[in-house]
């Protein structure tokens, strides 16, 4: 038999906490205790199953130096595109964090707490994807995390298409422990403080009860991009001209492209109604932090890092308590209560007074959008209008204006999220069955507050209507003339209150049947659950009709799901184990039957082959399947009209058109059908030497009938796309429909399918060093062989090794290879640990075969060899046990202070990939202590 400790720790399985402590205590000491493994409801003598499961233990998590569960999980090789890091403050779900297994998105990753579901975050990512917010999980009381990596689970729900993350908290805690740490970057900023207290009383065996309570407080300071600009090269610096890029990158503004084509400036620009040339108003040197105005062409150039944050300001409180009562040797009752409150604040740029906003069509605006760039005019009598009515110009005219309102100040996105969870249940044994039944309720409430937004109705009048009490609205250097009453009326704070809730009743039971096979008796598990999910996510007040400078983003839904499932474990031979499960889910409008089959063959005690086949099912979410739901997202694309073949078109196009942010409107559709999936794994587990464990698993997942918006590059080519009227002029002839791309439609649809495949390798080595203690070495490798989306029979996008998929992954990209190397050494009272994280380089293209996504001013590829360089960080930590009560610890993240590679395409971080944030923050130190009172 393989070394049990090695198998438990390193090959993908571990004891679960769902076994009966009372029953176990009553068993004869010579009887092998049965354990339950994530992904199965049947307790077994062997913790090794056919499914690959990665286990992260408590010590491994805490000595990593990471501040939260999500920060640690996002370093794992299994995490991919679609993950939500803390620093992604300009996203739809700002203030939250999430993991995306296999890059299939957070909505295809099922996250459990102690084996049960949690209410999703109260705002869908990209306005579409429902997910569990990992920031609600208290890190200090985590016992272990088990990641089921073989796709859909018939035990927990068929919507776990990419896999399951089961976070298991500590139980049966005794004593009082306090812990505190503080951290800071090498620049003496980004300071973070954490304190926790854990108290437990009662022994289940002796006292017949246990009660544990944990409180955890976190606070971290914001980091501005300007705090890094010019200190870490390109990091946080929107101005990439020093690296050969053109003026008009995605974080730039205030430049003049040519006739009738400008980007809003901090001084304000006014268009000559006759020539369509824009004139920049004076005062640039006092309003823009950009001193080098080369290439502005008479405008006033600025970059977003003048205002925008890199990391948000965060304050959070997590509370958790669990009580367990051993009623009798065969019956145990338990209750769990959790509460989390998290407040984040992220600074953006000041608002433009001429946005294009989208919202549900109404009688006044049946087209469902307003292009304020054409509607907001500076009046003919406005004092700052160069083309106003004067004695010398009696035939003055109103004129278009472009202005980013620095006088109002940057907008701040504040997100206050409250998460509550309550579980009550009973588990035990009766009539030969082990059972567990319970009721779970959880909800997530989110209050969004966006400051310094614009009341567009007041603004329009203040700019153009002399009869208005607010006219004239002075802009730029003349803004000091504006009365306070104007700002009181024009500047608003936009708010929304969202809530999701989840109610679940579940029951499961397992037993060993009196049916003997050559390898032993058959195990059987049966289960059922009923859950109700509610989503109410209204948009920011005022966005429903275009009266503020924000597009409409909302989702509403109410779904009921009933499910039953069965599972068997059949030891066909002493060396062959068959597992099989089937689940039936009944939704309001859909139903599914999803099977799972696994086989494990152990020809010798040190070697086993394993494989699984799974099927999955995901019904349309609230944001996707309801016509009352709508969102508008933004991604960088190549304009197919103004930049054909990746070359700016003649007649006025520039390189900016080859990588331009475009907004796309996505509307829910009740006719959408569910997604389905099929997954296969095949692998082996081998203990070739004492203390050595090797696990190698190949995997393949095919997700069909996918619910996706139309890809942005295809949406940009739609003839219905909204464009400005700065049309190209070729040979003196205006080319209609060739203006700058502003807004398009990307409706949800059931596209064909996505198919991904790859290999996971996990090698661990334990070393006993005698007087020198003991050590553990490990390497985990994930190779993505293919990540392809088949939009149609003729259109296939291969994203493996590229920067895509940008419309669903925050433009984080899909590296083909990721590696984690770990080492831990215990000697006497000391522990020294190190973790090296490496991701492969990526082609700087949207998809395989596409042109370079970023180009220099001279038209050459924007990054060396049109690639985003690989990135490696080393995290070091140490721990010293002063005595049995006091422990001191310290860590250094990104010990070699590696700088994140230049990434001009991503919009999650300014000039760096959001998943490389440790290379943007820089070397980070942390020290702390814990003390056990008793």
Number of helices: 11
Q: Which percent bin holds the helix content? A: under 10%
Radius of gyration: 29 Å
Structural class determined from secondary elements: mainly beta
Mean pLDDT: 89
Alpha-carbon distance between the termini? Answer: 39 Å
Instruction: Give me the count of strands.
Output: 50
What is the overall silhouette?
globular
Q: How is this structure best described in words?
A:
The protein starts with a helix and ends with a strand. The longest helix is centred in the middle third of the chain and has 9 residues, at 456-464. The protein is mainly beta. 6% of the residues lie in helices and 44% in strands. Residues 1-33 have low confidence and may be disordered. The strands form eleven sheets. The chain has a 22-stranded antiparallel beta barrel. Strands 1-4-5-2-3 form a five-stranded mixed sheet. It contains eleven helices and 50 strands.
